[in-house]
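Friendly challenge for the regulars: who can give me the C-alpha cells for this chain first? No prize, just bragging rights.
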Amino acid sequence: MSIKIGLVGTGTVGGGCIDVLQTHHDDFARDLGLDLELARVCSLIPEQAEAHHVSDIFTLDYHDLINDPEIQIIIELIGGTTIAKSIICEALEAGKHVVTANKALLARAGDEILTRANEFGLEVAFEASVGGGIPIIRPLMHSLTANSIISIMGIVNGTTNYMLTRMDEGFSYAEALAEAQSKGYAEADPTADVDGLDAAAKIAILSSIAYKSLVTIDDVATQGIRTLDAIDLKIAKERGCCIKLLAIGNNTKDGVDVRVHPSMLPAEHPLSQVKGVMNAIYVVGDFVGETMYYGAGAGSHPTASAVISDVIEIARNIECGGGVRLGKPWSKRAAFVSQKDAEFSYYLRLPVSLSAAFDVQVFAKKAGFVLKEAPCAYHDQASGIIHYVMFTEPAAYKTLEAALNSLTCQDGLLMGTSAVIRMVD
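First reply, four minutes later:
Bragging rights claimed.
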C-alpha cells in the first residue's frame, strides 16, 4: 500500500523534494519496501509544478491536501510564520504527520506545534530546519542521547560564511554581499542572514533539543556581521586566525548560554576550515567527546535530502504501526545565564576620526580593560580614519558595552560602528 504525500511549496527546496521522490521512487520501493506517492502539490506558482511535471496533481489551495483523507504526510516548505503555521496546525488536526524545514516558525512556536502533535499522536519532523543536508537533529535526538551535551558550536548560515570567506580574500563587506546576492546565496533583503537572525533560530532549535529545555529565538543574544570590514579579516589572518559567525549553545551550571556573534578562531580550529557556503556543527558530549557534522547547509537537493529522510522515517513508522518516535524533545523552559555578566576576551576595532584627539591607552584604562598587548593603529588616509585595534583579557560584556557607549556620546569621534569580536581558543 502506498504512503500518500502532500507537498506545500514548490520553490527551491520543494522542487528538490519532487526530484528526490521521482528519482528514487523505485529505489525506496525495492530497498526499503516503501511506496512513497506524491499525491498532491500546492503552491502559488503553477509554472513550478509544470517544470517538475506534476501539473496533473497541482492545486492552488492547500486545503485540497488537508481535506484529502488518503494523504498521510504533509510537507510544509513555504516558510514564514503565519500561513505555514496554519498549514501545519490544520494538517495535525486532520490527522496527518508533518515534515517541515521551517526554522523561523519552530524557533518561535515549536513548543505549541509539538505539544499539539503529541496530543494528536502525530509526528512533526524537522531535520532540514538546521544545517540543510547535514544530519544533526536526529543525531541529537537519538544517536547522542546516552550523553549529557556540554556544548554546541557551529557555522549554520551559508550566506555569512560565504561573505566572510570572500572578505578574508580581500573583498569589502559591500562587495562580498553583492557577490553573494548575484550568486543567489543572499536574498535581496539580507537582514535575516547578516544580522544573525537565521543562525539564532537554528541554535535555539539545537539548544532546545540538546539541553531538553525550551529555547526560543528571543532568548538568543544575537550580533551579526554588518560592522565587520576587510581590515578585521586581514588582522585576524596576520595573527594566524580567521573570523566566523558562530552559533553557540553551552550547558552551564547557571543555565543555558546561547548566542550568535562573530568570533576569531585559531587557524587550526576545525571550524576555521569551513569555507564558502558550507556549514559545520561541533558538538561535545560528556561520554562521546568531540564530534563534528559537516556539509552543504542549504540548496535545493541537500535540503530536500533531509526533508525526504524525515518522510521515510515517518513512512516506516506508519508501515510498522508504531507510535510517535520523535515527540517533544524538551520538558521544561530553559534558564539562561546573564550575557551582560559573561566574560570573554575581545578583539575591538575603533574607527576614530583622524582629526579627533583620542588616546587609546587612556580609553582602555578608563574602561577597565586589561590588554593582552599594546594597541595597534591602522591609518586609512583616504577615509580620514585611524582604526585602533585592541585585544583584551577576559572582560564582562557590560563593561565593554559601557565603554563603547561612552565613545558614541562624543560627537565627531567615531567614523562608523566599532567592531566587537569574541576570541575563541
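Residues 79 and 102 are 5 Å apart (CA to CA). The domain at 137-296 is CATH 3.30.360.10 (Dihydrodipicolinate Reductase; domain 2). Your move, everyone else.
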